[in-house]
Amino acid sequence: MDEMTPQRLTVLGHAQRLAIFRLLMRRYPDRLPAGEIGAALGLKPSTLSAYLAALAEVGLIGQTRAGTSLRYGIEMETVRNLFDALLIDCCQGRPDICSPLTQPDPSGDSRMTQSATGRKFNVLFICTGNSARSILAETILRDRAGDRFKAYSAGTKPYSELNPFAVQVLRDKGHDVEPLRAKNISEFHGEDAPVLDFVFTVCDLAANEECPPWPGQPISGHWGMPDPVKATGTEAEKALAFQQAYGALHRRIEAFAALPLTTLDRIALQSAVDDIGRN
């Protein structure tokens, strides 16, 4: 066991330091400014600074400079070493007591599979309001690769409605908007909810929020992008922001739909999903 393991566990034993760690894990591979972390978790700058320093001291997070500001992110190699210490050393690698992530399938095959009946992969796109970006993504995937994927979208706000600019962009692109409605994420946690294979957040605020664990351990990714709803200016300038959001999501979904899902293992697939979110 790494001699730093006890210190890292001690640092994570503090509720607010653990909350920072969990937030940065949800946003990986992004690196966030301290102000965004503090706002998401309601921490004062002085308190946050002390917690970030403690996490950095044991190597769990690192910082990079972007212009005049510092950005913080997970040091994944260190985190993997910590998890290895817990799952392989402490648990002796026993699949009956270790995380099921260590044994995704009893046969040892960790690739994504589709049943012989042709079950489609279920994909959920999450945003705060489920009014624009997630609606665009749901529609694009449905129409781009509906033979292999069943696309859903949801928001973290209790109530929302479709943004008229988003609906108009979809109409202009030839998409059917009749099936669309704003939905809350709670619809996907009930007993009758579909078992999800992929969960993508497409806005930073939604990624910053904590959600209950998803059954079935879907592949997750963060594909954050600017919110076109916040665009200002003329009607044409606002419409352009939605066109740009549509184009960015279309490129990412094209790349996602082209992945050889049934031949990649979970690690390779997660890496590919993360790479798409960077572009």
UniProtKB/TrEMBL annotation:
It comes from Thioclava nitratireducens. Residues 1-94 form the HTH arsR-type domain. InterPro entries: ArsR-like_HTH (IPR011991), HTH_ArsR_DNA-bd_dom (IPR001845), Ptyr_pPase (IPR023485), Ptyr_pPase_sf (IPR036196), WH-like_DNA-bd_sf (IPR036388), WH_DNA-bd_sf (IPR036390). This is ArsR family transcriptional regulator. PANTHER family: ARSENATE REDUCTASE. The keyword Hydrolase does not apply. It comes from the Bacteria. It holds the Pfam family HTH_20. Keywords: Arsenical resistance.
